[in-house]
Amino acid sequence: MRKRRIVCIIMVLLTMGVVFPLFAGGAEEETAVEKPEEERDYYYWDEVETAEELEFIRDIVRDDAVPVTVDVEKPVRVALIFPAEDLSDSWLRGHIAMEERLKELKIPYELATMGSKHNDHTTQKTHLERALVEKYDYVIVGPTEIYVQAAAIEQLVADPDIEVIVWNYTTPLMQWGKTREEGQPLAYVGFGHYGGAQILGKYILNTYDFENVAYIYGVPGATSIQRGHTVRDMLSAAGINTVYETYCDWDREKAYEATKSILTAYPEVEHIHVISTAMAAGAAAAIEEMGKTGKVIINGWGGGSEEQDLLLAGQLRFTVLRNQDDWGVSLAEIIKLDLEGRRDEIPLVFNGEMTLVDHTFDRPAIDEILDYAFRYSGELEIK
User: Fold this and answer.
1) 113 in helix, strand or coil?
2) Are residues 41 and 164 in the same domain?
3) Cα atoms in the 13 Å half-sphere on the side-chain side of 94
4) Which of 154, 190, 207, 271 would staple 297 via disulfide (CB 3.0–4.6 Å)?
């Protein structure tokens, strides 16, 4: 793995909304079965593309970079708009991997990053409006909540001079049709929230004999439904009792306080299911403070550096570890395919691969997975 240490002061600036230009393993799969029959306004990836189409882009992402085959006369202007989640390093890793891959692909580019807090919809809307006015060639947006940002994204997609990639979503909205011609953006890139929930739900049912479970979600919307409600419904169908559910705005401190309240009000709870790194860290801290580490089981989501430390310390028991750099590499490769006039070869959804990691993994076993998963972003020092 390409190792380096990066002092990530950039993340502090991003959470403040600062905008600045920059120049330049054995994964488990989401299956096409067991999908809930709920009323929904989004498609699953296998409803808009085939497994072969998805594997085409995955193969490109896994392989070494092949430089762009056309002359790119002037730098490609890219706007990267995303929420800098306070503990998860996934956004930063994607950012680094995208830039490193663009360099390997020999694509000249100018990058403007526009950050916000994870639940700061207003700031992100301002960034999207700016991207529309300044007409970036590519706008990569990780929505704070896709339903809130849908109208702004529609405006960008409607501009013939701008290509839009939706980051951290793999479920195209039905309101935009099934194809780009009908109104979909150039692509969606992420790790399937529903697929990760399937992996976690199946693991719980095969490993534990819980009777009482509580749930901590992010904010109301697609991500909480797919990551959280999916597991809740799987466990409920197996007869496991839901004692409490709450939203904590993806925030560590709110999850910490919520966990203390849950443990006080519901001493019978055996597992608190959490759907993000930041909230898992807050929940784990509350459980440790109340002397219940190992007695009340906590999971993570994503398998980043913070989660690995908590897992090895025994504070988390399991998580899904994303092949994290893939989602940055895929952004660069999608841009390359578009520049080469191969738009029709770009699948609508890049759905990244994830691996279940639990307390039985030691440091060498995790590092073996990370050699690939963090191959561009390496070791991070976040300040």
Assistant:
1) strand
2) yes
3) 27
4) 271
